[in-house]
């Protein structure tokens, strides 16, 4: 990558001003800031600054392998189209028999989401899953309201362990819903 070493100084600037306003950064600095946050925050959530630490594993960010990591990302995304659309518009635009949609909406009646996602959105997901040409996979929390709205679709229970907060494991169930 040309000028990679020149841009690493931008990464260090970004690291030192994570709490600064992103609009004051250059495009390269904003990209470096985003990459840094995605690599080091819990669940790749760039807001809330939930950083995790470990005494048994190294950091996920290795600046000496940055070029290799970016090259791997490039190869993985080379045939991907990224849209900035409402999810319903995206589904309608790409609904074909050969399309697989994976939806991971906010979990119903849980805290921690900044965006409003009303119950009619889940009803719309269920309706599109039942009527679309493409195939749907939806992952969501196990809740009676969710089971009711997705009734008629294939619902699989999956046991998972939530490990938020280190060793505080909490066993729960999620649903994998398919049309």
Number of helices: 6
Total count of strands: 4
What distance separates the N and C termini?
A: 43 Å
Q: What summary fits the major beta sheet?
A: 4 strands, mixed
- Overall, the morphology is globular
Overall average pLDDT: 80
Give the fraction of residues assigned to helices: 25-40%
What's the arrangement of strands in the largest beta sheet? Answer: 1-2-4-3
Strand content: 15-25%
Order of H and E elements: HHHHEHEHEE
- Rounded radius of gyration (Å): 20 Å
Low-confidence stretches: none
Structural class, from secondary structure content?
A: alpha+beta
Describe the structure concisely.
The protein is an alpha+beta fold and 179 residues long. It has helices at residues 4-16, 27-40, 66-77, 87-94, 119-131, 144-149, and strands at residues 100-103, 135-141, 154-162, 170-178.
What does it look like?
By secondary structure, the protein is an alpha+beta fold. 37% of the residues lie in helices and 16% in strands. The protein has a four-stranded mixed beta sheet with strand order 1-2-4-3, with no helix packed on it. A hairpin with a 7-residue loop joins β3 and β4. The protein is globular and about 50 Å long. The model has no long low-confidence stretch (mean pLDDT 80).
Layout of secondary structure:
Blueprint: H1 4-16, H2 27-40, H3 66-77, H4 87-94, E1 100-103, H5 119-131, E2 135-141, H6 144-149, E3 154-162, E4 170-178
Parallel strand pairs: 1-2
Antiparallel strand pairs: 2-4, 3-4
Helix pairs in contact: 1-2
What labels would you give this structure?
four-stranded mixed beta sheet, 6 helices, globular, alpha+beta, 16% strand, 4 strands, 179 residues
